[in-house]
Each structure stands twice: as C-alpha cells, then as structure tokens.
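User: Fold this; tokens only.

Assistant: Input:
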Amino acid sequence: MLNFIAGGVCAAQGFRAGGIHVGVKTHNPEKKDMALIVSDADCACAAVYTKNAVKAAHIHVDKRHLADGRARAAVINSGNANACAPNGEENTERVCAAAAKAVGCPPEDIVAASTGIIGQTLNVAVMEAGMPDLFASLDPGAAGSDAAAHAIMTTDTVKKELAVETVIGGKTVHIGAIAKGSGMIHPNMGTMLCFITTDCAVSPEMIRAALLDTVRVSFNRISVDGDTSTNDTCCILANGMAGNAPITEKGPDCDAFTAALKVLCTELAKQMASDGEGASHLITCTVTGAKDEQSAETVAKSVIGSALTKAAIFGADANWGRVLCAMGYSGVDFDPDKVDVAFESAAGSVQVCARGRGLDFDEELAKKVLTEHDVTIAIAMGEGDGSCTCWGCDLTYEYVKINGDYRT
C-alpha cells in the first residue's frame, strides 16, 4: 500500500526545513534564495550528479563529504550556480561550515547544492550572515518544506514537492522530496536539484543502490531542451526514525522501499517536464514492441528531445513524420515498416501511421487531441517486448524569450 501525503521533506519523522532570502538573488528581495534541511539524527546519505564533464563546485565538495555515506543536513542556494566561478569549492566549504555551526555537527556532515547563473562568484558572505536566521526558520511541518521548495526555484513557475507513505517491515515509512527543474534539462539528469528525506532505516549501500535504480527510470527519462546542466544533483537522506528493521541487503523490504521511491521520483520528473521553460504541453512518449528496454528508452528519448517534434506539438500539428525521423536517427536498429504511431490525450486518440506509412486521419480530431496540455505520442515498433516511457515538453516562443536574456 502506498499513499501520497502532505508535508514534502518534512513528512518524514525527524526532519525540519526552511527557506529565506539572504541576498544571493539581488534583483528581487521578495524571492527566497537559500534553503536548509536538517535531520534530528545522523542519516545514511547518497547522491547522484550530472554527467556533464563541467561540474559545479558543490558536486566536488559533496563527493568528499559523502565518502562515508553519512550526512546530517543539506544547504541549497538559488540565484548562483557556483560553477566555473572563482573560489568555487572554497566558498562551498564556507557555506557548509556555517551550516554545520548552526546545526551542531561537523562540516563534513553537510551536503550542499547551488543553482542559477554559471560563472559568477558566489556571494558567500550573505549566506554566512543569513545562516542563523535560516536555521531559526526551520519548521518540522508543511510550512518548512514549502519555504525550502520555494527557495530553490529559479525559472520554475511552480514549486515541486511531494511525499508518500508505505509500510515496510510492519512500520509506516515516509519519503518526501522537494525539487527544482524547468530548463537546461536533458538525460541523463536534467538541470535539476532534488532533495529526498525518509525516516526509513536503510544502510548507505542500499540507499545508494535504490537511488541509482530510481534515477535511471525517472529523472534520466525527461528532457526539456537538450542541454545537460553543470549542477544536477539528486540527494537522499535516511534517518531511520520509522523504526523498521534496517534494510541492509536486497529483499522484499528493499524492493518495497525502492518501489515507493520510484513512484515519488517519477511524479517529480513529470512535474519538471510539464514545467519546462515556456512549455504549454507535457509530452509523454510511450514506446512498446521494441527489441528490449534499452532500445525503447533510446527511441523515446530521441523523440522527446527532437526540436521539430516539440515544435509540432506546440503548434498542435499532427506531423508524425517528425516522430519517425527522430526514431530513425536515435541509433537503434529497427524496421520502419513495422512502426505504428498514434497521438493521444483526454480529447481522444488518433492513429496517424501504420506499418511506417501515413493514414488518412481526421485532422480536426488530431488538432483537438494535440491542443490538450497532456499529450501522448504512442509508438508501437513490432520488434519485441521492450517498452519505456519518457517525458518532455513542447518548444515555444517563450522558451527563447526566457533564455535570450537569462543572465541579463
């Protein structure tokens, strides 16, 4: 049994969170720009990061801090990526030291993250000065998670926050998360930050395995614009306060925990794709009948990443040839003469291609189908039993506007 619940990162027992404006975002003092998540107890902790060769300073610091698989708190800023910036790692360490002083733990037990503009020096002084007020703002309830969720937003138009509960080893276990991600998102790991908390008792080894398995089928299956960020970080902290028998090896309890984590992260991934910069459509691409799961994933990613396909969905144009084109350059070996394509939404379904050839279809119905916010591109390949679902968004005029003057 799994239920969605309120509370975000504070849904799990023993976690407090907060977010305030300290001055990293100088252009808008009304926007929160620094968040803190703290556990009352030591946590098993794991994280995965961007595959971009150019990495933000916090990633290098976090890798050192998480060498022992333990952490106590996470501190995050928005408004500055602290990537390719002067004194990047030194400034991250200073922020961790300030957070550690407030929390009462060693600096090595703090994980950090940044998001925002690349190449500019992080104003670490305002973060250090604001740390006492940030710590004082911590709240164990929904308000704390809400403040933290808003504090990590950049071009996001809505906060991204979820929590679930399930039963593991006879104990009710909670998993909560906040995330940000709107642009510069492309597999693997989009320009996103995600911080997950749980009161499940699980070893560092098992929580890392669960996180890697989860990210593979959630955050690694979304694309907004084909750009992989320098800052992507997904981190999970587990304090064990649910009181279940610790998960230290594979088995039913580990499977149940991973399943719940996948549900949570998949929903967050869909929220990110739906909130893509300037987006007016969430595009879901389902591929069935591929030779195997990897082939299906590669094809689906190619379709949701196609600028021409994304532009066609924006215009509610049932230009299915762009779908086959994106499939063809995906690198997957398949027979185009076996491919069927349909567009689906709440307004109905229209098949536009059968065995690689166009069909006479109702253009008016197709336009109605593609005018809905949530649109599915359903592809049947006729090659085997491999399947996969990936998520993206359309390409709009607003995306260019947002990114044309993002820095200035």
